[in-house]
Write a structure and sequence with these properties.
heterodimer; A: 631 residues; mainly beta; 8-stranded antiparallel β-barrel; 11% helix; elongated; B: 53 residues; 1 helix
Chain lengths: 631, 53
């Protein structure tokens, strides 16, 4: 520990952190540097403004098995309100920086200088390989140190505009490249995203979150004097007046008019300030945006609702043509991206659907960034219904969001809305309603197909399949076709039980035809079952080669015949010229399994899956019809 | 499909059990009363359809 007096005001100052080179005098805000045994005043720095950060100088915690203490505090301005960075020193000598945004704590350790890296080569959305890791650049910006307190590792210059690049990798890894005022060779800070609890700081050493107040008497629109109920004034940078459309600035702790915007075409479906429970979290609707893209001259608008929960931060609800998507922020480094082709996240592959230029048209409510109407962003969507990965890129920042499709009723019930518009068309990430039905249909079809085969097997096992008659008939040359002279009675045969009959006829033919009229006569009842089977076979050659037409055999099934004694009478018909001996064979098979019915049942069982597949495929075809990135 | 599949299997069972062949070209009739029987008792019925083209 090194103690002494401030060279500027004489107040007591002390160095407790071995790594600290300067200390900010708590009395006069002079930056005091230690030079051997002397103290030297380096200039003044602004006094920190109270933010809602729970950290404070002096707090002690434990991370990764090592104790640490918060010894210093910087406050920076990147153009979006005060940004806190806390300097921590570990008991093992390591030092780091802690910052916090939207409920997530970033702990970064210095990794030294990285030579050969140039600021001009790093743009949001681009990949970077550094320190044996792949990173995705999320943000590129600059800012100044506006205030400081406690002990710091080096001097701070409030006049110095420093450039930085933020990037993320998988598993919560984060990277900051601090270029300072240089173009090249940044100082590297590598760390992790944590929850505040993981820093192991006892609750009594954390500051209660103080909400930055906007004076209520000024919570009126400076343009139209309409009353504005700000829900999260400590988080907001912009407010869109719902009465007159004025865009107001909140960053200075009060409302100031920026510009007049066109009011949205209709009131938000989810009223500003409305609370709703989604994903077991109560969200409050803070903001409402109307954005659109224009493709081939056609404007496609959609709405975005900004939701806020003090513990979980900000999420979005997007409404497009009555379809709703719940969107959460996502670290770019957690997504493996092949731009405009596919994305891979959390074991799921997402297919590129569309790439558009989205413009913000109207704003209402409160926003945590400096939203402006007319703001353009390149928006790319990758889908794996019901999920989606959305990449919004501007010149200085790229943001990734993870979306999940919500049924309109879920939103209606969550926010207790009277009604929500019926969905129109198909949303890129809308789940295919026919897909699950198709799976169910296929499973049932397989089940019934198995049942059909079992039943068919039982019938086949039960059937007699008995040849009751097989005879070869010779028709004399002098017979006349179709007359009793060409008629033949079989020997009587018995059918021992009721059953169908398969009739097979084969004739010795060559470039000829023969028709067989058969009559099965029940000898007890006199009932006759008649059939006619004609066979023909013609062959020859022509310029194309040999040809053949017809068949010398044929078959047919007769319906069930009662048990009893039968005789088959056959009468042959044929071309009487030339007169010659003709032969044919008739075979009767009793109680035979009819494969035709099995085929018919199989076809019927396949109709369901075929129809389900058609509907599912048709849905996907319609979904991808509007894609401008699919092949 | 849950019920339709069951109906198909049921209909299949019914038609196979009944031996019904709706698409057969059979004709059902009865021999005339004046048909004589052979010495063996066989109906020697020579009337009816006479075939031919």
């Amino acid at each position: 520990m090194t103690q002494g007096r401030c060279p500027s005001c004489g107040a007591d100052v002390e160095f407790t952190a071995g790594s600290a080179q300067v200390v900010v005098c708590g009395h006069c805000q002079t930056v005091v540097a230690r030079k051997d045994a002397d103290f030297e005043a380096l200039g003044k720095i602004g006094r920190v403004v109270v933010t809602d950060s729970p950290l404070q100088v002096g707090a002690e915690g434990r991370y990764d098995g090592s104790a640490f203490q918060v010894v210093g505090h910087l406050q920076k301005d990147h153009g979006a309100g005060p940004w806190d960075e806390w300097y921590v020193e570990f008991s093992d000598g390591r030092t780091g920086w802690v910052s916090e945004s939207e409920g997530t704590v970033h702990l970064l350790f210095s990794g030294g200088v990285e030579e050969g890296v140039s600021l001009s080569d790093l743009h949001p959305g681009e990949k970077l390989r550094l320190r044996n890791r792949h990173w995705v650049v999320e943000e590129r910006g600059h800012g100044t140190v506006t205030a400081a307190e406690g002990q710091l590792p080096s001097d701070v210059d409030p006049q110095q505009d420093s450039w930085y690049v933020d990037a993320t990798s998988s598993k919560g890894a984060i990277l900051t490249l601090d270029f300072g005022t240089h173009e090249n060779d940044p100082e590297v800070f590598i760390g992790v995203r944590l929850k505040l609890e993981q820093l192991g700081i006892p609750p009594d050493q954390l500051r209660p979150r103080v909400r930055r107040k906007v004076e209520l008497k000024q919570a009126r629109c400076p343009e139209c004097n309409g009353p504005l109920e700000l829900q999260a004034p400590d988080k907001s940078l912009r407010v869109g007046c719902p009465f007159c459309g004025a865009l107001l600035d909140v960053s200075k702790g009060k409302l100031s008019f920026l510009r007049l915007l066109e009011k949205p075409p209709h009131a938000p479906l989810i009223p500003l300030g409305a609370k709703g429970k989604l994903r077991d979290t109560e969200w409050m609707c803070l903001g409402f945006l109307v954005r659109s893209c224009t493709v081939e001259g056609v404007r496609y608008p959609w709405e975005e609702y900004l939701l806020f929960n003090r513990a979980k931060g900000f999420v979005w609800l997007m409404n497009s043509q009555g379809h709703w998507v719940f969107l959460e922020p996502l670290a770019a480094g957690d997504v493996q991206l092949v731009p405009h082709v596919s994305a891979f996240f959390d074991g799921r592959r997402y297919k590129a659907y569309q790439n558009v230029h989205a413009v913000t048209e109207n704003v209402q409510g409160e926003f945590y960034w400096e939203v402006t109407a007319g703001e353009y962003a390149e928006a790319t969507e990758y889908v794996a219904p019901p999920y989606s990965i959305n990449v919004d890129s501007t010149e200085n920042e790229v943001s990734y969001t993870f979306g999940e499709y919500l049924a309109p009723e879920v939103v209606k019930d969550a926010f207790k809305l009277d009604a929500v518009p019926a969905p129109e068309g198909i949303l890129p990430s809308q789940p295919n309603p026919h897909k699950s039905r198709m799976l169910s249909t296929v499973l049932w079809s397989i089940g019934w197909l198995a049942a059909l085969l079992v039943v068919a097997g039982l019938f086949s096992a039960r059937s007699l399949n008995k040849v009751v008659l097989e005879e070869r008939v010779t028709v004399p040359a002098e017979s006349s076709p179709g007359t009793p002279s060409a008629m033949k009675f079989s020997e009587p045969f018995d059918l021992e039980r009721r059953g169908n009959m398969k009739v097979e006829v084969a004739a010795g033919l060559m470039n000829d035809w023969m028709g067989i009229q058969g009559d099965l006569v029940n000898q007890e009842t006199g009932e006759v079952v008649g059939f006619y089977e004609e066979v023909s076979l013609y062959q020859g050659t022509d310029s194309d080669g040999s040809w053949s037409e017809g068949s010398a055999s044929g078959s047919l099934h007769l319906s069930a015949l009662p048990a009893g004694k039968y005789v088959l009478r056959t009468t042959a018909s044929y071309d009487p010229t030339p007169a010659r001996v003709r032969n044919y064979t008739v075979r009767l098979t009793h109680d035979t399994p009819n494969g035709g019915w099995l085929c018919a049942a199989f076809v019927l069982l396949m109709l369901g899956p075929a129809f389900a597949f058609f509907r599912s495929h048709n849905f996907e075809t319609r979904r991808w019809a509007d894609s401008n990135l699919s092949e | 499909m849950k019920w339709f599949g069951g109906l198909v299997v049921l209909l299949y069972s019914a038609v196979v059990w009944s031996g019904w062949s709706p698409f057969t070209r059979e004709e059902r009739d009865r021999v005339p009363g004046n048909v004589r029987r052979s010495p063996g008792g066989v109906l020697l019925w020579t009337g009816g359809y006479m075939g031919g083209k």
